[in-house]
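Whiteboard transcription, Tuesday session. T.W. wrote the structure tokens on the left side:
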């Protein structure tokens, strides 16, 4: 074996349930030290420290502050942008640097303390955390939302993802209630995995009927979407095989990145050629498996990114995976049950997968999703070295359907959702409408129309759109 072959040799996770809990910097330090201990690596010897963006707090110099806490002087430092694919991009870059002989070791970590932030808000207090950035930097978007999406108030994932779900539902011919029941059947087994996971946020097994509670972004219910307000942290340590040998890390505690890939759909939901499916997922999976020299049938365990059901379904559709496959769709319990700590989840699924592959040799698939089902990572991990790494160059980039910002006239619904408030009442409908020259966003405000939209299939409905130049309003 090439002595520069990268391997994952250290893992750590923490979940804090007592509120208020520690700040992200404390969590970073805690899991970094634990992962380095697991790797038998003194933290001062880290060549690279990389941190996934935290939504909880904006630090003045996040990587520098952690390095100072650890007493480390890494020559390579990275703080990521916002994205559910960020952990795999950092891990992939670290592995590439090790394989190239540029690094011998790397820490990738992330933490959120959004539950603690919520506890302080409820108490009417400010979080008393350290080293605040001043001035506060802009939010870490890789690309901000489309001006038309912002004008219509359509930028929260809990509203964009169900638009794609309704488009898929209509495309495959599921009735409204049939989709809901199928979704609950797919996700209920995930709650059982979470119940057995000591790091899961919601450790309660639930029946399909129990998951069909109040709506948030119709047809999604509160219990079938990612839970963001968690206090969780994770870290992994990668090293060259040569360094792992010097550290005395046993071979059965090394896990190898056999191959991975990155792909992109359109950044705007309305611009997607087919709202309910993803050629980018198929391309990412095909490239990752090809680089690993393995296939779906070779996988002993799977963790498919599960922020919303459409992410699971598009992945299953694209790679030919039965949603009720006996291997299960998750090793953690998934984002709605194990926890969805903003951009960090893939660190948790990777750490959990690595622990599983240490305990039982074999191969595992870990996927990631960023933004509005825009970005996709597929990574094949194994107890056996081999394959070729791959990288972050997109293996697929979708062509965009034009987004028409202001539109008046006839159109046809391509996908939709109904936003529900904290009390459970329907408040506003969001539509993607096929129009002359492309697609447009529109809102629905009439209570009677909102009720009708939740009772029958609205995809394909002819609508009338009027505009004030900024906001398009639909009716039928």
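and on the right, the sequence the group agreed on:
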């Amino acid at each position: 074996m090439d002595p520069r072959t990268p391997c994952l040799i250290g893992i750590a996770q923490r979940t804090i349930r007592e509120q208020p809990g520690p700040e992200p910097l404390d969590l970073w330090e805690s899991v970094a030290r634990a992962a380095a201990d697991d790797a038998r690596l003194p933290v001062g010897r880290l060549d690279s420290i990389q941190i996934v963006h935290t939504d909880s707090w904006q630090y003045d110099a996040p990587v520098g502050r952690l390095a100072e806490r650890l007493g480390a002087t890494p020559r390579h430092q990275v703080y990521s942008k916002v994205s559910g694919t960020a952990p795999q991009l950092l891990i992939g870059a670290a592995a590439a640097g090790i394989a190239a002989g540029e690094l011998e070791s790397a820490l990738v970590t992330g933490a959120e303390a959004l539950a603690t932030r919520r506890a302080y808000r409820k108490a009417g207090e400010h979080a008393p955390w350290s080293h605040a950035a001043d001035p506060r930097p802009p939010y870490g978007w890789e690309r901000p939302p489309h001006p038309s999406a912002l004008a219509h108030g359509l930028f929260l994932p809990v509203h964009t993802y169900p638009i794609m779900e309704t488009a898929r539902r209509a495309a495959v011919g599921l009735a409204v209630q049939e989709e809901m029941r199928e979704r609950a059947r797919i996700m209920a087994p995930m709650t059982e995995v979470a119940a057995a996971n000591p790091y899961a946020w919601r450790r309660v097994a639930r029946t399909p009927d129990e998951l069909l509670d109040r709506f948030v972004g119709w047809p999604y219910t509160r219990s079938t979407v990612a839970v963001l307000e968690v206090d969780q942290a994770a870290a992994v340590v990668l090293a060259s095989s040569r360094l792992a040998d010097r550290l005395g890390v046993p071979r059965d505690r090394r896990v190898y990145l056999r191959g991975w890939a990155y792909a992109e759909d359109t950044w705007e939901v309305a611009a997607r050629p087919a709202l309910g499916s993803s050629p980018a997922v198929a391309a990412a999976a095909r490239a990752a498996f090809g680089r690993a020299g393995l296939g779906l049938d070779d996988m002993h365990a799977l963790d498919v990114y599960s922020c919303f059901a459409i992410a699971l379904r598009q992945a299953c559709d694209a790679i030919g995976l039965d949603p009720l496959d006996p291997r299960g769709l998750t090793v953690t319990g998934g984002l709605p049950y194990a926890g969805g700590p903003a951009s960090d989840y893939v660190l948790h699924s990777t750490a959990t997968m690595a622990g599983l592959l240490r305990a039982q040799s074999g191969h595992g698939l870990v996927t990631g999703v960023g933004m509005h089902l825009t970005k996709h990572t597929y990574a094949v991990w194994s107890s056996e070295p081999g394959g070729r790494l791959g990288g972050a160059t997109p293996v697929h980039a979708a062509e965009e359907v034009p987004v028409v910002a202001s539109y008046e006239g006839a159109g046809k619904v391509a996908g939709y959702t109904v936003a529900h408030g904290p009390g459970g009442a329907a408040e506003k409908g969001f539509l993607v409408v096929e129009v002359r020259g492309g697609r447009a966003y529109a809102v629905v405000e009439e209570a009677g129309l909102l009720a009708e939209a939740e009772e029958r299939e609205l995809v394909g409905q002819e609508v009338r759109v009027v505009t004030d130049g900024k906001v398009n309003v639909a009716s039928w």
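Someone added at the bottom: DSSP finds twelve helices and 15 strands in the chain.
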